[in-house]
Specification:
The chain has 494 residues and is of the alpha/beta class. It is 38% helix and 23% strand. The strands form six sheets. The protein has a seven-stranded mixed beta sheet with strand order 15-16-17-14-13-19-20, sandwiched between helices. A six-stranded mixed beta sheet has the order 10-9-8-11-12-22, with helices on both faces. The radius of gyration is 25 Å and the shape is globular. It binds nicotinamide-adenine-dinucleotide.
Length: 494
């Protein structure tokens, strides 16, 4: 059985006094055990990171960008290995895992431009003889706490900008799919990053809470569910840290009567059921406006019939298993809850049979859902798509804007005026117009609104650089050289 430990100061570590099982979700079998760090192990990582920060903060921008460029090349060389490591413990299909690596790579490429990104302002002659300039300096030891659903991409939302800005980083990955974090540590070491600038501490709430309580950790980036995001934000900020905590989601896709139904149906199927619905930007509610409901449901149903569900390693699979058996059962339980509340379960994922013990569940489509139902209110995080029927676009907008989450929202229409109105008025941090999963490119920043984000910085892009630096403004005045005791030959300035 594989034993998955920490990397502290560039070397493997872990007492394995407490462990958690790691599964191959497609087989439903335990393949490894991951160490769960004690407070002492977390403290050891923090101490090593503090020491490494002492030197790394002084590394030139040229040196930092050289490390990042090499890291970029190594990710490209090892992308199949990274994708395979994701699929082995997460279960998503290999093509999806490769896409995850590619999106993470975008964030590394962005950070390669750190000499440009850290340029501060400069004002000559702010007053007579007075200049003002700005320094953007690193914070110190910063931590990243990440969810199971993107074990490579989400850490790469944080690590490249954090280290490029001169910080030392401690990653606490999800205990459900911990192995890819060790590959990232290895590639960073191969790229020439000094030991201790990047560390991995495997663990659960005990490790997270130690990171939050330690006065030596200056900032925490978190991505995960809303209750834990709230906890991380409240505890971290109470301890005086800078915190960005991205939470859960319930993403709506509104389809207007003029939309291209085939385009909308393709989008709904891939955005609701891709990666088994375990994406924070997954579409979990389709809001149909007027007469588009029946043709759209028919088009979605046709496409669902062709979906191939199977192990992520099989090239023909389009959707893999869920992360654990417990999570699969929790997702499935919503189908009875929905029927009990009066919704119509048009496709019940439990009807599809699978060989073996894998954590598979077929996809589900639930019609006639209203906003009081649990199937609408809860983040299910599985392949269940709810349909809410309304009469007007204004009603669709009102539904989104009264939902507590505000991660992504999409509109399908041919009407530019309606699209403009939607993008202006919708309460969500990321908006798609005929794009179901509007994840911003790496040179913008990722983040939701309301219960989908605690803190004021979104992740990666310019807001990522802002989060991992603090600004110092220097005001300077130099005596006129003509007044120097040594004659430098300058005439007296007027
Ligand atoms: P999770 O909240 O259970 O876990 C996230 C991290 O927090 C893990 O590292 C875990 O070990 C740790 N953790 C769990 N319980 C904790 C506790 N009580 N105290 C301290 N730390 C704790 O999330 P998950 O199940 O791994 O991931 C799925 C969730 O993440 C979904 O809600 C999804 O929407 C969300 N997510 C959000 C985004 C986003 O950008 N907003 C992106 C990806 C995932």
């Amino acid at each position: 059985m594989k034993r998955i430990g920490h990397v502290i100061g560039g070397v493997p570590a872990g007492t394995f006094e407490r462990t958690a099982p790691v599964y191959d979700p497609a087989a439903g079998q335990q393949t490894g055990e991951v160490a769960l760090a004690s407070v002492g192990e977390v403290d050891a990582a923090i101490e090593v990171a503090q020491q490494a920060f002492g030197e790394w903060r002084h590394a030139s921008l040229a040196k930092r960008s050289t490390v990042l460029f090499r890291f970029r090349e190594l990710i490209v060389e090892h992308r199949d290995e990274l994708a395979a490591a994701i699929t082995a413990e997460h279960g998503k299909v290999l093509s999806d895992a490769a896409g995850e690596v590619a999106r993470g790579l975008d964030c590394v490429e962005y950070a390669c431009g750190i000499p440009q990104l850290l340029k501060g302002g400069h004002s000559a002659l702010a007053a007579t003889g007075v200049d003002v300039h700005e320094l953007k300096q690193p914070l110190g030891v910063v931590a990243g706490i990440t969810p199971f659903n993107f074990p490579v991409m989400v850490p790469l939302w944080m690590i490249p900008n954090a280290i490029a800005c001169g910080n030392a980083f401690i990653l606490k990955p999800s205990e459900k799919d911990p192995s890819p974090s060790l590959l990232l540590a290895d590639l960073l070491q191969q790229a020439g990053l000094p030991d201790g600038v990047f560390n991995v501490v495997q663990g659960d709430a005990a490790a997270v809470n130690r990171l939050l309580n330690s006065p030596a950790v200056q900032a925490v980036s978190f991505v995960g569910s809303t209750p834990v995001a709230r906890h991380v934000y409240e505890r971290g900020t109470r301890a005086g840290k800078r915190v960005q905590a991205l939470g859960g989601a319930k993403n709506h896709m509104v389809v207007l009567p003029d939309a291209d139904v085939d385009m909308a149906a393709d989008a709904a199927v891939s955005a609701a059921y891709g990666s088994a619905g375990e994406r924070c930007m997954a579409v979990s509610v389709v809001v149909t406006v007027g007469a588009v409901a029946d043709p759209l449901i028919e088009a979605i149903t046709e496409r669902v019939g062709d979906l191939r569900i199977g192990p992520g390693t099989e090239p023909e699979s389009q959707m893999g298993p869920l992360i654990t058996g417990d999570h699969r059962d929790r997702v499935a339980s919503y189908l009875d809850i929905a029927a009990g509340e009066g919704a119509k379960v048009l496709i019940d994922g439990r009807d599809q049979a699978f060989d073996g013990d894998g954590f598979f569940l077929g996809v589900s489509l639930v019609d006639a859902v209203n906003t009081d139902m649990q199937v609408y209110r809860d983040e299910i995080f599985g392949p269940v798509l709810a349909v809410v029927r309304v009469d007007t676009a204004a009603e669709a907008l009102r539904i989104i804007n009264t939902n507590p989450f505000g991660n992504g929202a999409a509109l399908f229409t041919r009407d530019g005026g309606a699209a403009k109105r939607f993008e202006q008025e919708v309460e969500a941090g990321m908006v798609g117009i005929n794009v179901p999963i509007p994840v911003p490119v790496a040179y913008y920043s990722f983040g939701g609104w309301n219960d989908s984000l605690f803190g004021d910085s979104h992740m990666y892009g310019a807001e990522g650089v802002h989060f991992y630096t603090r600004t110092k403004v220097v005001t300077s005045r130099w005596p006129d050289p003509s007044t120097s005791a040594v004659d430098l030959g300058f005439p007296t300035s007027s």
